[in-house]
Amino acid sequence: MAATDFDKDGSHFDSTRRSALPRLSMEEDVKRNSEAKHRRPTPLQPTQEYPPDWVPIQVPSNLEEMFQNWAECDEPNVGWCLMCNGPIRSVDDLIPGTNFHNCESGRAFEEQTRAEP
């Protein structure tokens, strides 16, 4: 039996999946697709509480460009700064006692977060 043959009862048989799929009329297929479009996905609920000192990040609109820059970077590095679009060469490139890159944007952001209650 070929991969797209029909079983004796008229249902479609996919021998590669080893299952019989019921044949739908065009009206049933259109109705099923229409109903699926109106279903709303269940919103994801956080599954974990985060420490109050964690800072959420905003994903930059040029994230793909940043990944490309990181991939093309010839310098040894341990990460890429999403604020200045530059390499983080080692832990020495971080502001001491923080997880912020020691760049102009990183220093400004660290100041801002330190000033917040």
What topology does this entry show?
Layout: E1 12-14, E2 19-21, H1 26-38, H2 63-72, E3 79-81, E4 86-88, H3 104-115
Antiparallel strand pairs: 1-2, 3-4
Strand order of the largest sheet: 1-2
Helix content: 25-40%
**Integer average pLDDT:** 77
Low-confidence stretches: none
Shape assignment: elongated
Q: What is the H-and-E element order?
A: EEHHEEH
Strand content: 5-15%
Largest sheet: 2 strands, antiparallel
The gyration radius over C-alpha positions equals: 27 Å
Helix count? 3
What structural class do the secondary elements suggest? alpha+beta
Number of strands: 4
Key features of this structure:
117 residues; alpha+beta; two-stranded antiparallel sheet; elongated
Q: Could you write a compact summary of the structure shown?
A:
The chain is an alpha+beta fold and 117 residues long. It has helices spanning 26-38, 63-72, 104-115, and strands spanning 12-14, 19-21, 79-81, 86-88.
What can you see in these coordinates?
The protein has 117 residues and is an alpha+beta fold. It has helices at 26-38, 63-72, 104-115, and strands spanning 12-14, 19-21, 79-81, 86-88. The protein has a two-stranded antiparallel ribbon. A two-stranded antiparallel sheet has the order 3-4. A hairpin with a 4-residue loop joins strand 1 (12-14) and strand 2 (19-21). It is elongated.
